[in-house]
Amino acid sequence: MATVTVYDLDKKQVRERELADEVFNTEVKRFLLHDMVRFQLAARRQGTAAVKSRGKVAGGSKKPFRQKGTGNARQGTIRAPHYVGGGVAFGPQPRSYAFKLNRKVKRSALCSALSARYQGEKLTVLKALELEAVSTKAFAEVLKRFELEGALVVIDQADSKVELSARNLKNVKVLRAEGVNVYDILKYPNLVLTDAAVSQIEGALEK
Hints:
Shape: elongated
CATH class of the largest domain: Alpha Beta
Radius of gyration: 27 Å
Strand order of the largest sheet: 2-1-3-6-4-5
Mean pLDDT: 95
CATH superfamily of the largest domain: Ribosomal protein L4/L1
Distance between the termini: 16 Å
Number of domains: 2
Helix content: 25-40%
């Protein structure tokens, strides 16, 4: 059974906590991490790029010159793709870049990301993360105390004091437990979880 030390905000050890092996100490499948990051980034793409085909360009309904006798190649419209100001052939049209991943793949990828942070000793668990007021300085001091240059901080429930205190810090992001995802875990070098957030994540991912 994987174990981790639970600290308070002064970096004093509170207790040892056991972690679910199937969530925090499973085999790290890098190909699943790759697939999940691709899935998340593809879903974010707007897919709104568009150009006009020859049928959407105004004008050009009249034949530019008669079919025969001019010595020129026959033409039906000046809005064909090879004309300046004509439509674009096979240009981009609005589309969705999202693709499907099975639910079991998503779960396994998230467990792999969490396990990578645990096995790489980049996981810190706090008993609680509570601030008296919105203070970027106070939040930064907590991270400095734990020697964390950049971190994804996962809390168990909405806390405006914590969320607002962290928003101006470079390489720091605060997420609620229900929003934890592979891309953000891999983006930040360290992962910080509150004790209650660990319980929520385990409850959601354990079979």
